[in-house]
């Protein structure tokens, strides 16, 4: 590629938006980035909401920050797209205004709606009516088997907020709302449509299914047109361009959900390629060429950004968020003050952040965390055991257990869960000895080593793994612009920067810990329900 081109991409996560400016030439280079955080509102009844206005503010502020720190002008930005958290529910009116806070992927309030619709029947599979489940699998290749799936949130609003529902014009996912703010156009990409489980994904169909909508009482008028990731949806309106600091008419592409675009940013572009993601949430995802589902383990394939490909994905609700909990409640707690904020500031360049310091502390602690096991289920569990009432715990604490052991146990617990997901995914997807590891968790050498030791796999890490989603969005934009003829051309441009091989001397301790980890859910399931299920 003779000439350099610039594209803007956005990674809209659970706790913040990362705006990234990329230079596309013989290499894909990050020019600059900016993170703007926003709140997540957790409610006592299982609600998990965010303000769509907060997302838009973060997009505009991030764009202006990046442009102010570079010599790239708005006229040079050739296009943009979004990588966003998935399974959110945004209800908008005819003017495109959000009618309420968005219900995020962790929102579990719709347990009753799910139970009424598919939880009743003499014959059940994974707590779902067997006949309805099989019909869903036939049509969509998956099933809304958890209360956190978007269709149940839609029905929750219909039942609990009829005044909002009456004013609803369209029902969107996070990314689709932001595209609407940018262009005035209403659409949804195939991956987001698929995870509503109202979209017929059979070969030659690829459309909303009227029968499924009718059976649930979903108004098909609320469903937007469906587009591809690389489709040019429209150009920035004058209003949006002014707020963002960009040029009116700048092309906006379909983009995708985080699962779809992080796979691309991880360099998992060939069939069988598998990646582990540790951000606020987490998952294990394999690139496959057909619909696949494992009802027992709550795993399904969803349409990806790459044509004719699916992402076979097992999800974990809270992943990197567990380390944030460590930061707030173990490292910066008010009692004990294991590491106070003033000390972090005095460390200067030796430790760039508290997380880097914690990573060093973990490295100084013996693998196995002194026998302490942590379960990373702060907001319930999704795969391979769907349970909104499961919670985190430390198991096997003794008098010699210190905070360093607890901190290491948290990182190991997340890795144990990833091993659980890997084994479940590979019951149907090809076994892989080498896995890509991306997300903020992959910035920690300690966590990379733990991931290799616990899973027993070779772990590869790309440069700037925390930006995999934004990189995926940049690639989608570049393909949409015709800068690359296909996604296959991009794989050599996403090289591996670090490789971690499992250490044999720790295999026994982690194999033992892993077996206990899996038992902890089954042994405590009833207790979780007694404590956390609404009366």
Could you describe the 3D structure shown?
By secondary structure, the protein is an alpha+beta fold. It has a domain at 5-254: ATPase, nucleotide binding domain (Nucleotidyltransferase, domain 5), CATH 3.30.420.40. The chain is 36% helix and 22% strand. The strands form nine sheets. An eight-stranded mixed β-sheet has the order 21-22-23-20-19-26-27-28, sandwiched between helices. Strand 22 and strand 23 form a beta hairpin. The longest helix is centred in the last third of the chain and has 26 residues, at 507-532. The radius of gyration is 22 Å and the shape is globular. It starts with a strand and ends with a helix. Mean pLDDT is 92; it is low at 334-351.
Structure summary:
With 535 residues, this protein is α+β, with helices and mostly antiparallel strands. It starts with a strand and ends with a helix.
Into which percent range does the helicity of residues fall? 25-40%
Q: Based on CA inertia axes, which overall geometry fits?
A: globular
For CATH, the homologous superfamily of the domain at 5-254 is named as ATPase, nucleotide binding domain
Helix count, DSSP H or I runs of 4 or more residues: 17
Poorly predicted parts: 334-351
Structure keywords:
535 residues; alpha+beta; eight-stranded mixed sheet; 17 helices; 28 strands; globular
